[in-house]
Write a structure and sequence with these properties.
The structure is a single chain. By secondary structure, this protein is of the alpha/beta class. It has 2 domains: 110 residues, Nucleotidyltransferase, domain 5 (2-Layer Sandwich); 154 residues, 2-Layer Sandwich (Nucleotidyltransferase, domain 5), CATH 3.30.420. The protein is built from 9 helices and 13 strands. The strands form 3 sheets. Strands 3-2-1-4-8 form a 5-stranded mixed sheet. Helix 1 packs across helix 2, helix 6 crosses helix 7 and helix 7 packs across helix 8. The radius of gyration is 19 Å and the shape is globular. The structure holds zinc ion. The site of zinc ion has 5 residues, from loops. Zinc ion binds next to loops.
């Protein structure tokens, strides 16, 4: 048996994949339950996926190397949840639990848009912003497993309040909800549809939005000097509309832009399955 399994726990859905020979060969999807029912739901998905050699789970939030969910923004009731121990007891075998953004970064690095990079950021622009980092050809988790919380990088110290308790976090401005805020409450999809149709006001919103995205990408570049930045998440699906603005502002805001190599800004290739694929790969040590 060579298949490996991974499950990505999202804010609204859990997506499981069986990955074999570089391809997804089966997938299972369930609504994300309350944290009290998470273990049984994940066990159900794992059984339905079929035979696998190893199983990994990707979870948003602060995940310790021991597989404890310390805090998770989208999982109601998940505080100090010992997910690995509980799910191992339910399934009767060892599993791996990782941060979902770390999983997605690993998958894009190994099988997607980040192939060949030695120093990479994966930036997931969705409802919030997730991050995963490869530095010196090594996936970075940080000393406690909490590396890459780039959505809460403060970009405006007296800025908009964030549910995390701080003000001016990057994800208040450069996520899907950030775009809606910039557009005065209009949904991001609608702004993008209007921009595609050439609407000047919507194009202006995308310009402002692109600047906010670039502010964060420039900060990451100034800190780790990556050769590739992979942009994923829901907004990557609108890359044709959004990326020209991001690229324009990136050049504008980068430190010493004329005297350095710029990272390549690439659009993610694995879509919503990146997290599950990465969880599967990491569980197998691939
Ligand atoms: Zn925050």
């Amino acid at each position: 048996m060579t298949a490996v399994a991974g499950i990505d726990v999202g804010g609204t859905k859990c997506l499981g994949v069986l990955f074999d020979g570089g391809k997804v060969v089966n997938s299972v999807r369930r609504p994300t339950p309350h944290a009290d029912d998470l273990v049984s739901t994940l066990a159900e998905i794992a059984r339905e996926l079929g035979d696998y050699k190893t199983l990994g789970i990707g979870v948003p939030g602060l995940i310790t190397p021991q597989g404890v969910v310390r805090e998770s923004p989208n999982l109601v009731g998940a505080i100090e949840l010992d997910l690995r121990t509980q799910l191992e007891a339910e399934l009767g075998h060892e599993i791996d639990v990782e941060s979902d953004a770390t999983c997605a970064a690993h998958a894009e690095w190994q099988f997607g848009a980040g192939r060949g990079a030695t120093d990479m950021w994966m930036v997931t622009l969705g409802t919030g912003i997730g991050g995963g980092c490869v530095s010196g050809s090594k996936l970075q988790r940080g000393s406690h497993g909490f590396a890459g919380e780039i959505g809460h990088m403060v970009v405006e110290s007296q800025g908009l309040p964030c549910p995390c308790g701080q003000r001016g976090c990057w994800e208040r401005y450069a996520s899907g909800s950030g775009l809606a805020t910039i557009a005065g409450g209009e949904r991001g999809e609608e702004v993008i549809a209007r921009a595609v149709a050439g609407d000047k006001e919507a194009l202006g919103y995308l310009d402002t939005f692109g600047r906010w995205v670039a502010v964060g990408l420039v900060n990451l570049t100034n800190i780790t000097d990556p050769d590739v930045i992979v942009i994923g998440g829901g907004l990557a699906e609108a890359a044709d509309s959004v990326m020209p603005f991001v690229k324009k502002w990136f050049k504008e805001l980068l430190y010493a832009p004329d005297n350095r190599e710029h990272p390549e800004l690439r659009v993610a290739q694995l879509g919503e399955r990146a997290g599950a694929i990465g969880a599967a790969l990491l569980s197998a040590g691939v």
